[in-house]
Design a protein that fits this description.
The complex is a heterodimer of chains A (126) and B (113). In chain A, 0% of the residues lie in helices and 50% in strands. Chain A contains no helices and 11 strands. In chain A, β7 and β8 form a beta hairpin. Helices cover 0% and strands 48% of the residues of chain B. Chain B is built from no helices and 11 strands. In chain B, strands 2, 4, 5, 6, 9, 10 and 11 form a 7-stranded mixed beta sheet that branches. A 4-stranded antiparallel beta sheet of chain B has the order 1-3-8-7, with no helix packed on it. In chain B, β5 and β6 form a beta hairpin. Chain B is globular and about 40 Å long. The chains are: A mainly beta (126), B mainly beta (113). At the A-B interface, β5 and β10 of A face β5 and β10 of B.
Chain lengths: 126, 113
């Protein structure tokens, strides 16, 4: 079955760029049936959607983070990535990647996320 | 943005007893395609969220039938018919009909008495 695995530095300095990668196994990021998303969870708090990318490269970002976020896909490596610039302590969180269902040709909204990675903790501190 | 409001914030349940969680959205989650884009997740302690229910009332693969979802429009409910110890964690509702952004409820923590 499809599995997702986040990777990247666990510690990032303030004002720098957070970079994470999600590796997909057992499935393909090139599938037209899914979107690939990033979600984060600050310590002791709830879930915040960051954004998603479709295999074609089209993206959708949370407006609250849009100016600082870039999500990209590398089909040759079967990975998708997150970059969050100008980080502060408020960006300290567990970051999850996830797969959601989406048939863009139907014109319907994207569906829920059914496969999640285990999450990776990122701390922003000098 | 569509605001998702969950109640209660926490729930303490005796094993074998039922539990119910409410989720209200600030706008209707019913799309013109006939589907309602409301999902329920459970985040067990130390784990990533797992999908329980999709499109209001459909149990995801492997989810026990003691979990059920209901509702329409803006009002939704997740019910656990008989709570078991493995059901502890934080439950979240989520909408995907209108984005950005995709939004989650604040969560309901379920614990065992």
């Amino acid at each position: 079955q499809v599995q997702l695995q986040e990777s990247g530095p666990g510690l990032v300095k303030p004002s720098e760029t957070l970079s994470l990668t999600c590796t997909v196994s057992g499935g393909s990021v090139s599938s037209g049936s899914y979107y690939w998303s990033w979600i984060r969870q600050p310590p002791g708090k709830g879930l915040e959607w960051i954004g998603y990318i479709y295999y074609s490269g089209s993206t959708n970002y949370n407006p609250s983070l849009k100016s600082r976020v870039t999500i990209s896909v590398d089909t040759s490596k079967n990975q998708f990535s997150l970059k969050l610039s100008s980080v502060t302590a408020a960006d300290t969180a567990v970051y999850y990647c996830a797969r959601g269902h989406y048939d863009i040709l139907t014109g319907s909204p994207p569906g829920g996320m059914d496969v999640w990675g285990q999450g990776t903790t990122v701390t922003v501190s000098s | 943005d569509i605001v998702m409001t969950q109640t209660p914030l926490s729930l303490s349940v005796t094993p074998g007893q039922p539990a119910s969680i409410s989720c209200k959205s600030s706008q209707s989650l019913l799309h013109s395609d006939g589907k309602t884009y409301l999902y329920w997740y459970l985040q067990k302690p130390g784990q990533s969220p797992q999908l329980l229910i999709y499109e209001v009332s459909n149990r995801f693969s492997g989810v026990p039938d003691r979990f059920s979802g209901s509702g329409s429009g803006t009002d939704f409910t997740l019910k656990i018919s008989r709570v078991e110890a493995e059901d502890v964690g934080v439950y979240y509702c989520m909408q995907s009909i209108q984005l950005p952004p995709l939004t989650f409820g604040g969560g309901t923590k379920v614990e065992i008495k």
